[in-house]
Design a protein that fits this description.
Elements lengths: L1 E5 L2 H5 L6 H9 L3 H9 L3 E3 L2 E2 L12 E5 L13 H7 L7 E5 L3 E6 L16 H8 L3 E2 L5 E2 L11 E7 L2 H13 L3 E8 L7 E9 L7 E6 L3 H4 L5 E12 L6 E7 L6 H8 L23 E9 L11 E5 L4 H10 L2 H7 L2 H7 L4
Parallel strand pairs: 9-15
Antiparallel strand pairs: 1-4, 2-3, 2-4, 5-6, 6-9, 7-8, 10-14, 10-15, 11-12, 11-13, 13-14, 15-16
Length: 352
C-alpha cells in the first residue's frame, strides 16, 4: 500500500526547514522521529527514486510516496478474554470513563501492569487491549494499542488510550507540551503544613535500582548537566486531615512526567504514601497497596487539536473500593465529599 503526497507551497510554508524528514512530519502529522524511521526503513521515494537522506531538500511540486507494509499478526491469538480474567480477576474492574472513535479513557484498577516485559509472568493491560480494542497501525507498519502514558502497577486511575494514529500523535504531542495531564490523590503519613512545590533533578537511586531519587537540587545547574539526571516538578496541596490519625489526603499536579516522580518527591521531604514500602513507608498500614490514584485527567480532544475552537476536557476516574473505604474510615464523610469535588481540586491549583 502506498500514500502519495504532492508538495504544495502551503506545506513548505508550514515547515521550518524544507528537509525530507521535516516535510514528512508536517504533511503526515507525525513526530519527526517517526518520519526518520520511515526514511531509515526505505519506505519513502522522492519523484519515484528511493530517498534515504533525511536532509534531502524538498521543493514545490515534488512527489513523495510512502510504502506502508502489512503488519505482522499477533502470536498470542489463542488467549481469550475469559482466560485473561481467570488469570487475573482485576481485569473485571477496568471501567470506561469515556470513549468515542478517537479516544478511550479507562479507569485502571490497582495491581495491573501496563506493558509487557520479558521477566513478567502475568497478563498486562496491553494483553487486555489486544482482546478488546482493534489495533492501530503507524506508517512504519507497526501494530500498537494506543498507550501514550502509564501508571505504576499499584497506582490506579485515569489512563488515555488512542484509537487512531491521528489521536496517538495528538496525545503524544500534548504530553510533551503538558496540554494533557492528570491530578492525583494520595494518602500520606506525615501531613503537609501548606501547599508545597518540589523542583529537582531525578535519576536512578545509587543504592537501590528499583527506586528513583532526588540527585540534585533545582538550583544546582552544574550537577543537572549530568546526562542521567532529569528535571522534575510537582505541586502538592493538602485537602483534608484525619481526626483519627496523622493521615492527610493530598492532591498533586505534575509539571513533568518522570518515573516514580510523586513518590520520589514525597520521600525527599520526609513524607510517604500509605502502603509505599519501597520508598520508606513504615506504619500500621503496610498491608495496603500504594494509595495513589490518578483522579482527574485534562486533555484536548484529538479531533479539535491545533484548532482555535479546541477546548480542554476534564474526566474523572472514580476511586476504587479499597481507597474509598480507607478514606471513609479515617475521614469525615461530609468534608470528604466536599474536597473530592473536581471543581474544588481544580481550584486548588488555579494559580499554578
Amino acid at each position: 500500500m502506498q500514500d502519495s503526497i504532492i508538495i504544495t507551497q502551503k506545506d513548505l510554508d508550514a515547515t521550518p526547514k524544507p528537509r525530507l524528514d521535516s516535510i514528512l512530519s508536517t504533511c503526515l502529522q507525525i513526530p519527526r522521529a517517526q518520519a526518520l524511521q520511515l526514511i531509515k526503513n526505505q519506505q519513502v521515494t522522492l519523484n519515484n527514486n528511493l530517498c534515504i537522506k533525511p536532509s534531502t531538500q524538498i521543493t514545490l511540486n515534488d512527489t513523495l510516496q510512502i510504502s506502508i507494509p502489512n503488519p505482522q499478526p499477533s502470536t498470542n491469538t489463542h488467549i481469550t478474554l475469559d482466560m485473561l480474567i481467570q488469570a487475573k480477576s482485576e481485569f473485571l474492574d477496568i471501567s470506561v470513563v469515556y470513549e468515542d472513535n478517537e479516544l478511550l479513557i479507562l479507569n485502571k484498577p490497582p495491581h495491573i501492569v501496563i506493558h509487557e516485559a520479558p521477566s513478567l509472568k502475568e497478563p498486562t493491560l496491553v494483553d487486555w487491549l489486544k482482546l478488546t480494542q482493534p489495533p492501530i497501525r503507524n506508517l512504519c507498519g507497526d501494530l500498537r494499542y494506543g498507550i501514550v502514558h502509564r501508571l505504576d502497577r499499584q497506582t490506579s486511575g485515569a489512563l488515555a488510550i488512542a484509537k487512531t494514529p491521528h489521536a496517538h500523535n495528538a496525545l503524544s504531542t500534548q504530553l510533551k507540551t503538558r496540554e494533557m495531564g492528570r491530578y492525583y490523590l494520595a494518602l500520606i503519613d506525615n501531613p503537609l503544613k501548606k501547599t508545597t512545590t518540589i523542583e529537582c533533578y531525578m535519576g536512578r537511586h545509587p543504592k537501590n535500582r528499583l527506586k528513583m531519587a532526588k540527585l540534585a537540587s533545582y538550583k544546582n545547574s552544574q550537577d543537572s548537566k549530568h546526562s542521567a539526571l532529569r528535571y522534575s516538578k510537582s505541586i502538592f496541596t493538602p485537602l483534608l486531615d484525619s481526626p483519627k490519625d496523622t493521615l492527610q489526603l493530598i492532591a498533586i499536579k505534575l509539571f513533568t512526567g518522570r518515573t516514580h516522580q510523586i513518590r520520589t518527591h514525597l520521600e525527599s521531604i520526609g513524607r510517604h504514601i500509605i502502603g509505599d514500602t519501597l520508598y520508606g513507608y513504615k506504619g500500621k498500614f503496610e498491608g495496603y497497596r500504594v494509595l495513589l490514584h490518578a483522579y482527574l485527567m485534562y486533555v484536548l480532544h484529538p479531533n479539535g487539536y491545533n484548532t482555535q475552537d479546541c477546548k480542554k476536557h476534564i474526566f474523572k476516574a472514580p476511586l476504587f473500593a479499597d481507597m474509598l473505604q480507607f478514606l471513609e474510615q479515617y475521614f469525615d464523610k461530609e468534608m470528604l465529599d466536599e474536597v473530592l469535588a473536581p471543581k474544588h481540586i481544580l481550584d486548588c491549583f488555579t494559580h499554578f
